[in-house]
Amino acid sequence: MATAVAMRLVPAEMVPRALSMIFSGVSAATIVAAPVGSYLGEVAGWRAVFLLGAGLGVLALVMQFLTLPRLAATGTTSLRTLGEVLARPGIAWGLVAATLVFGGHFAFFTYLRPYLEFDIGAGIEAVSSLLLGFGIANFVGTLFAGAIIGRSLRLALTAMPLALGAMALLIVTLQPTLAGAAVIVAAWGFVFGAVPVSWSTWLAKTIPDEAESAGGLLVAAIQFAIAMGAAVGGLIFDTSGATGVFGASALVLILAAIGILLGVSPRRATEAA
């Protein structure tokens, strides 16, 4: 719902920046939640962590109630609406491209830890530090996403998977040291920070009249990509190790960039005749 709500809260030209702010909150939570949850779980037990999570949920509800304006419904949606959205020119192609981008990313990210531990020999402290670096860089990349997208959404959509694919290939071909891997992982986090913002902005520009339904389709595509990236990556990992997964991730990301360049447009998709 984030995209649909942002579109109604700010002027159209401010949507990329608004989405960047929203997703920066997601990135910040990703950085903070895991270490804080682990620490509190060790000190006070898992029940305390669950109670804290419930309390934060209540606090978020109260803050939304106090700060968000009333937004009347603008229409009705159904399962048929989803089909109508998919039938619009370029939308199905765009969702396939988004699936490839997120699938390539999560194949890489899922098997990053075993690569660091088994291929490089990093200890748990080094792995934790690298993942923290990834999270901080991801937060910064999300903050900068609005400015990048404001220059050219099409360029952002194309360049980001291409850059991620190139980084995966660097790891496969150069077999970097721990320090080199740390630089690549941080760069990956920075670049990927703009990916969710870019695709949400694409959705806002192409289907502004059905943002809720389109948002559901995009999230479903991302969840499918996460599952497939991890599952197919696991099959490759069993036969070729983490570098094999990274090579496949690079191929998928580069194919996604080509597909975006050829068939994804940031212009509004009109209803099919």
Using brief descriptors, characterize the structure shown:
single chain; 273 residues; mainly alpha; Growth Hormone, Chain: A
**Distinct helical segment count:** 11
CATH topology, by name, is Growth Hormone, Chain: A
How many separate structural domains?
A: 1
CATH architecture: Up-down Bundle
Low confidence ranges: none
- Major sheet details: none
Strands, total number:
0
Strand content: under 5%
- Please trace the helix and strand order, writing H or E for each element: HHHHHHHHHHH
> Radius of gyration from the CA trace?
20 Å
Distance between the terminal alpha carbons, to the nearest Å?
27 Å
CATH homologous superfamily annotation: MFS general substrate transporter like domains
> What proportion of the residues is helical, as a percent range?
over 70%
Q: Judging from the principal axes of the Cα atoms, what is the shape?
A: globular
**Please, what is the average pLDDT?**
87
Structural class: mainly alpha
